[in-house]
Write a structure and sequence with these properties.
The complex is a heterodimer of chains A (595) and B (87).
Chain A (H helix, E strand, L loop, with lengths): L1 E7 L5 H9 L16 E7 L2 E7 L11 H12 L4 E7 L3 H12 L5 E6 L1 H6 L3 E2 L1 H8 L3 E3 L8 H11 L11 H4 L3 H15 E2 L8 H9 L5 H43 L4 H19 L2 H17 L1 H15 L4 H10 L3 H7 L6 H10 L6 H14 L4 H24 L10 E3 L8 H35 L12 H13 L6 H10 L4 H11 L3 H11 L2 H13 L4 H11 L2 H28 L3
Parallel strand pairs in A: 1-3, 1-4, 4-5, 5-7
Antiparallel strand pairs in A: 2-3, 6-8
Helix pairs in contact in A: 3-8, 5-8, 10-11, 10-12, 11-19, 11-22, 12-19, 13-14, 14-15, 15-25, 16-18, 17-18, 17-23, 17-24, 18-24, 19-22, 20-21, 21-22, 24-26, 25-26
Chain B lengths: L4 H6 L3 E2 L8 E7 L3 H10 L6 E7 L6 E5 L2 E5 L1 H4 L2 E5 L1
Antiparallel strand pairs in B: 1-6, 2-3, 2-6, 3-4, 4-5
Classes of the chains: A alpha/beta (595), B alpha+beta (87).
Bound molecules: guanosine-5'-triphosphate (GTP) and magnesium ion.
């Protein structure tokens, strides 16, 4: 099968083009370094199946950071039959340098000048015919996001696939011309084919940035925006979640319970109280999660992440981190795993490790589910959003504390140089793709972890058969009793302890296991929790859940990204210790104050 | 405009980090090496290119500069190594 690779600088729209070509839902965002690993997809092109490969962006072929290494290794190990070089047309003046470097390694290539829509808006004119002539490579102007020029480019790609890559030099770097030669050639190519206005018209980005990056207002606006977004998610998502919950309860009573009535009681219990209750309680969060990621997608696609890096860099520097670390913490609000992988853009190993040490404290969407459920059960509708926000503050607080404590061991002098892209807005198509991607991801996790988790919990709380379900005589009861000395000082009951143990695997299981342990789903579970716990215990439980390690996937990612067992073990141990300490101080403090 | 070539020639080169927001200059030297140097070249920092300081972040945070159509954030540490002549 022939293979086509997408190459280009970061943030030029490679993944957008990949999605358009393959119909996939690769992650797109207005941040250089969204893609850090290669992705493949297959399409029918000119009657043949072809493999398309989306790669991380690269600034030049010297490539020193981990994401750039991915590209270098790829090019070295398996030469693609065709390379699509994706350049940002509005920045053609500087991005041409990468093209000229790539040209030297004799790839069969087609050049795609993306973001034609923006180039037009900026008054940049590019004569592709003249440029094709000057370079001897087919060049097309297109907009991967809106589709203009795509058809023509696709035809050219199909045609170019008939030729093959002549073969590649063994040692890429030795072959490269000096920077001066490249500079001279850039000037030659650009002279007749590209016209850029001397001064760009004062555009929307400049106007918005005057406010968003204002010396005094910038930071307050940033926190205001964050606060507003989380409130919006809570206010829109919580009723949706209750609605879906009611639907599942109704379905159970109206259809599923009568259907299963013929089965033996124990099996009925496992299916209904175990799997159905557990999975339904978790599945009720799908609308909230989709909503959450739609907001995340909007934030990521606008380009506000780079602005956050600008605003926070000075503060992060005091903690041994930089603006990009902060952006990864923000990305971690969605899921810690891609945030951990996103640190590949950092060159200094110390900076990477320190950033990876703080990311797990970022309150991810799976933990958000637990907190939404518990705050709704134990706090008044007025207090609940504030309680939720306070957990975000704890999330930042523990990250800051961790960085301050360990920055001395991981000193770095990594330069901070980052592109600031213009503001962009996602199209409905991009939003739908992203929403669908998250639902898929959730179902994938649900089928893998959640079902297995709730079945395990059900067995633990119902075996041996002689014991009353969920009583002290069951396996779960015994484990709970055994760990009791450790969890009593932080106000966590033995039922909650079992949920925490399973929460180690994935936070989605926490609510699912509570449903199984109490034998109740949805609303009923909330009421039961409210009767059994007071708010101090509940908050302590949430603090522990927040801090004690995100999930097994995150630990596996920590391991694979750091390639260091000791570091991974340390990260997990530290988060456990910190979780216990914070919960202890909170719980005992609150009790001491008389709550 | 209006600047005499003579005045331009005798203007001393200063570090990029000393510009104030709104000031324009021309890059005359880039005193960096290795990976940082390559990255700066790829971002469009080349001698002879006009550059403008757009703004600085509070608490001696990063600088936002504009080279052609690209906006770049960089810290004072890095900006100190880039010499410019004001225009
Ligand atoms: N205006 C405009 N924006 C585009 C176009 N193509 C992509 N974008 C936007 O550019 C940004 C970057 O797109 P991506 O597809 O993530 O870029 P990438 O090259 O994969 O980036 P990395 O994975 O970071 O290397 C996103 O905000 C896209 O929505 C286009 O043709 N026009
Ligand atoms: Mg990408």
């Amino acid at each position: 099968m022939k293979r086509i690779a997408l190459l280009g600088m970061p943030n030029t729209g490679k993944s957008t083009l990949f999605n358009r070509m393959t119909g996939a839902s690769a992650r797109v965002g207005n941040w250089p370094g969204i893609t850090v690993e290669l992705l493949t997809g297959r399409i029918l092109l000119g009657g043949d199946m072809v493999e398309i490969i989306d790669l991380p962006g690269m600034y030049d072929l010297h490539g020193f950071s981990e994401d750039e290494q991915v590209v270098r290794h790829f090019l070295h190990d398996n030469v693609p039959d065709l390379a699509l070089i994706v350049l940002n047309a509005t920045q053609i003046e500087r991005q041409l340098s990468l093209l000229l470097q790539l040209k030297q390694i004799n790839l069969n290539m087609v050049v795609l000048l993306n973001m034609a829509d923006e180039a037009k808006k900026f008054g940049i004119t590019i004569d592709t015919a003249k440029m094709t002539e000057a370079l001897g490579i087919p060049i097309f102007l297109l907009s991967a996001k809106y589709g203009a020029g795509y058809g023509e480019a696709l035809q050219a790609i199909t045609k170019a696939l008939r030729y093959t890559t002549p073969g590649m030099a063994e040692h890429l770097r030795d072959q490269l011309k000096s920077d001066n030669q490249i500079e001279a050639e850039m000037a030659r190519v650009l002279r007749h084919s590209v016209q850029v206005p001397a001064r760009l018209p004062d555009n929307l980005t400049d106007q918005l940035d005057r406010l968003m990056l204002h010396p005094w207002l910038g930071l307050p606006i940033f926190f205001g925006v964050m606060y507003f977004l989380f409130q919006a998610i809570f206010f829109l998502g919580q009723p949706l979640q209750t609605g879906v919950n009611d639907l599942f309860t109704w379905l159970r009573d109206a259809a599923i319970a009568p259907l299963l009535a013929i089965l033996p009681a124990a099996l009925q219990g496992l299916l209904l109280d175990g799997i159905y209750n557990g999975v339904a309680t978790v599945a009720a969060f799908v609308p909230l999660i989709v909503l959450f990621f739609l907001f995340m997608a909007i934030v990521e696609d606008t380009g506000y992440l780079s602005r956050a890096a600008f605003l926070m860099d000075a503060l992060m520097a005091k903690m041994g981190l930089d603006g990009r670390s902060f952006v990864m913490l923000l990305m971690g609000f969605g899921c810690n795993v891609p945030a951990l992988m996103g640190t590949r853009v950092m060159r200094s190993r110390s900076l990477r490790l320190l950033t990876m040490l703080v990311i797990p404290f970022s309150l991810c969407s799976a933990r958000l589910q637990v907190f939404v459920f518990i705050t709704a059960a134990l706090f008044s509708p007025k207090a609940a959003p504030l309680v939720l926000f306070s957990l975000y503050l704890f999330s930042f607080g523990t990250a800051i504390l961790t960085a301050l404590l360990f920055k001395g061991y991981l000193p770095n002098s990594e330069p901070f140089v980052l592109e600031l892209p213009p503001y962009r807005f996602p199209t409905p198509r991009q939003l739908v793709l992203r929403g669908w991607h998250e639902v898929y991801h959730f179902i994938h996790r649900a089928s893998k972890f959640i079902v297995a988790g709730v079945v395990m919990v059900w067995l633990l709380t119902h075996l041996p058969p002689s014991a009353a379900p969920a009583s002290a005589d069951t396996l779960a009861g015994m484990v709970g009793a055994w760990l009791h000395p450790l969890f009593k000082p932080i106000g966590i009951t033995s039922e909650l302890t079992i949920a925490l143990i399973f929460g180690f695997v994935a936070k989605e299981i926490v609510i699912g296991s509570l449903a199984v342990i109490y034998g109740l789903g949805g609303e009923a579970l909330s009421h039961s929790l409210a009767l059994q716990l007071d708010w101090v215990q509940a908050y302590s439980f949430m603090l522990f859940t927040l801090i004690y390690t995100p999930c097994l996937s995150a630990i596996a990612t920590l391991r694979s990204e750091s390639k260091d067992n000791g570091f991974t073990l340390f990260s997990v141990a530290w988060s456990l210790v910190l979780a216990w300490l914070v919960s202890f101080i909170f719980y005992q403090g609150a009790r001491w104050l008389g709550y | 405009m209006g600047e005499s070539p003579f005045l331009y020639r005798i203007m001393p080169a200063v570090a990029l980090s000393t510009l104030v927001p709104g000031e324009s200059a021309t890059i005359v030297a880039i005193h960096t090496e290795g990976p940082l140097h390559q990255r700066l070249l790829a971002m469009g920092f080349r001698t002879g290119k006009p550059i403008e300081l757009i703004r600085r972040a509070r608490f001696s945070g990063p600088l936002q500069v504009r080279i052609g159509t690209t906006d770049i954030l960089l810290r004072g540490n890095e900006a100190e190594k880039i010499m410019v002549k004001k225009t």
